Each structure stands twice: as structure tokens, then as C-alpha cells.
Amino acid sequence: MKTNILKERAARAVFGTAALVSVAAVALICIFLFANGIPAMARIGLPDFLLGSTWKPTSDLYGIFPMLVGSVYVTAGALVVGVPAGVLTAVYLSQFASGRLSTLLKGGIDLLAGIPSVVYGFFGLMVLVPFIRTEMAGRGLSLLAASVLLGIMILPTVVTVSKNALDAVPESYYQGAVAVGASHERAVFTVVVPAAASGILASVVLGVGRAMGETMAVVMVAGNQPQVPGSVFDGVRTLTANIVLEMGYAADLHRGALIATGVVLFVLVMLVCALFHTLKTERSAQ
């Protein structure tokens, strides 16, 4: 009896320690970002930092508005490409594909999740960029290339989470719809998919986080011009790309401005997550 009690206490201690380490890691990251980023924002001026259109550290101009817009555009483009394809793929795997085919396709999708970002970037640089340059318009290094590539990269996340949500819907929902005369397709899309909406929404949130935080692949195909793109064929620089391109040689206020860029990215992701959480809560209340 005493041995079991000791084991339970030891297990609680281990799990509690693991939880505290996770929380502490997040807290330390937040402290580092805000402690170094907020003073830089104060020196630059918040309006000039967030709304300034010129990023030129040699002239002490640190306007991140073009990169902020670039991040939003690239993420939105990735969602347009990746979410419909991912959700429909999840529906097919969960409700239409045979068990053997579903297992085979799911393995391929899981393989996509394990491919390094730099390999995706190399694929985009050698395939997407030349295709856009020769068959469409522009130099190829563009907002469109980054959006399509990120859309492919978020597919595994969207498919996996959405499929799990669809699989978790009680079978009685589907059977009830079929019992009142609905076809298989109608039952799936009018009953099963809406019932899994909260899980599908969660997959979109994770996709947004992945798209906003991606760096290497975007750096390789986006063109990296610190400008507000006028079309999908123009080059663009994201917040993450701005940090990785310049942090290696930045110092003083320049370094602080890059850390402040990380603060803005952190807050932006938090706001997006809060928005989706609010939508999910309102939907659950209905």
C-alpha cells in the first residue's frame, strides 16, 4: 500500500515538474521578448514602428508595416490554398476512402509533416518560382510562391487534426441522417462535418500558427523586399524573414527593433488564436 502511494506521489512530482518546466519556458521567452523589445519600441516610437513604411537601419528608420502586411498576406494566401484542400482531404480519408487506402494516404501526409522546411524551400525555388516566372508574371520570387508553398506545408496539420475531429463524431449522427433519407454525401456534409466544426477550426488555428512562424522556406521564395506588395507577383518580406535575415549582424537599436518585431509577431499570433477561440466559444454556445 505504501509503495503504491509513493509511486503515485513520485508520478505527480514528475508530471508537475514537467508542467512547470513548460510554463517556465514560455514565461522566460515572454520576459526576454518584452524586456528587450518594449524599450526599442519606446525609442523608435510605437506609431513609427508599427505604421512606418521604411525599414532602413542605416538611417535609423525601423518601420515594420510592409513586413506586417506581408506576413498577413502570406498567411492568408496559405490558408486559401491549404485549408480547403486539407479539410476536403480529411473528409475523404475519414468518410469515403477504404481502410487500406486511407492508411496509405495518411502515411504519405504524415511524411509531408516530416520534411524539413529547407527542402520545401528548395522545391519552391526550383519548381514554383520558375513556373510562376515563365507561365505567369514577375520574377517568380513572390507573394504567390510563398503562399502556395506555405499552403502545402500546412496541409499535414490541417488534414490530421480535421480527420481526428471527423473520426470523433458519433456514428449515430451519420446513421440518423441516413435513416431519414439522406444520401451518404449529404449526410457527411450536412451532419458529420458541421458536428466536427470545432476540431476543424482548431486545425485552421494551428495552420495559422505554422504559416506565420515559418521562416526558411519563405525566405527562399518570397523575394524579401521590405515593401507592401501591389500584386501576388511582387516580392514580399515577412516579420520572421526580417528577423532571420538581419539578426546575425544587428546591434544596439537595430537588434532591439528586430526583437520588437518578434514581440509584434507574438502578439499577432495571440490575437488570432483569441479570435478563433471566441468564434469557437460562440459556436459551442449556439
Structural summary, described in words:
The protein has 286 residues and is mainly alpha-helical. The chain has one domain: MetI-like (MetI-like fold), CATH 1.10.3720.10. It contains 13 helices and two strands; from the N terminus they run H-H-E-E-H-H-H-H-H-H-H-H-H-H-H. A two-stranded antiparallel sheet has the order 1-2. Helix 3 packs parallel to helix 6, helix 3 (65-96) runs antiparallel to helix 10 and helix 8 packs antiparallel against helix 9 (184-195). The model has no long low-confidence stretch (mean pLDDT 87).
- Classify the fold: give the CATH topology: MetI-like fold
Number of domains: 1
The topology string of helices and strands comes to HHEEHHHHHHHHHHH
Give the termini distance in whole angstroms.
48 Å
Please, how many helices?
13
**CATH homologous superfamily (4th level) name:** MetI-like
Q: What does the overall shape look like?
A: globular
If strands are numbered along the chain, what order do they take across the biggest sheet?
1-2
Topology:
Layout: H1 2-44, H2 46-51, E1 55-56, E2 61-62, H3 65-96, H4 99-113, H5 117-135, H6 143-153, H7 155-167, H8 171-179, H9 184-195, H10 197-213, H11 216-221, H12 239-246, H13 252-285
Antiparallel strand pairs: 1-2
Brief write-up:
The protein is mainly alpha-helical and 286 residues long.
List keywords for this structure.
79% helix, MetI-like fold, globular, 2 strands, two-stranded antiparallel sheet, mainly alpha, 286 residues
